Amino acid sequence: MGGYRDPDSHDFAGGAANNDGSRRQRTINRTIFREMTRTELENGPLSWLRRRTLVRFGIRLGIDPFEARLIVRAVEYECGHAPRAAMDESDSPISTEFIADARTDPDDRIGQWMAGIAVVIALSIGLGFIFGQ
After folding, report:
1. Which of 15, 18, 127, 133 has the fewest CB atoms found within 10 Å of its own CB?
2. With the CA atoms of 17, 20, 23 and 28 taken in that order, what torsion angle do they form, in degrees rounded to the nearest 10?
3. Mean pLDDT of 116-120
């Protein structure tokens, strides 16, 4: 979004002389945006269209697009509507039965390496017979 200009930059109209007032206004705008997002979440989780509309409104309030998306995600997390990637492992419904344990016995790791090497050797011998003729 190329139209965003940082109000703290000194080339912005008002410069550093109006810094305290602009900071106060930005804080007020962030608070309004946060509460508006919280109100939107009362209707349930945000769709991508509602989220994009909120971010665009945040940009109109003078909030950086990245910061607007961050505020939306933070409020979603606070309200319990966080996406799966943001949840703790204990909350995740993903089963770990197929994930190898990193704390295996070192002797067992050597056995796994040997089995892998045996498969590679068997494949190379088989391919040698197929393409060697």
Report:
1. 133
2. -130
3. 81
pLDDT, position 133: 59
Q: How many CB atoms lie within 10 A of CB 57?
A: 15
pLDDT band at 64; cut points 50, 70, 90: very high
Helix (H) or strand (E) holding 36: helix 19-40
- Mean pLDDT confidence for 34-53: 90
- Hey, is 118 helix, strand or coil? helix
Nearest to 87 by CA among 102, 71, 76: 76
- Helix 65-78 crosses helix 19-40 at what angle (to 10 degrees)? 40
Residue pair 59/6 in contact (Cβ under 8 Å)? The answer is no
Q: Is residue 45 packed enough to be buried (19+ CB in 10 Å), middle (13-18) or exposed (0-12)?
A: middle
State both tokens at 76: 């979603």
Token pair of 105 as six digits: 């016995």
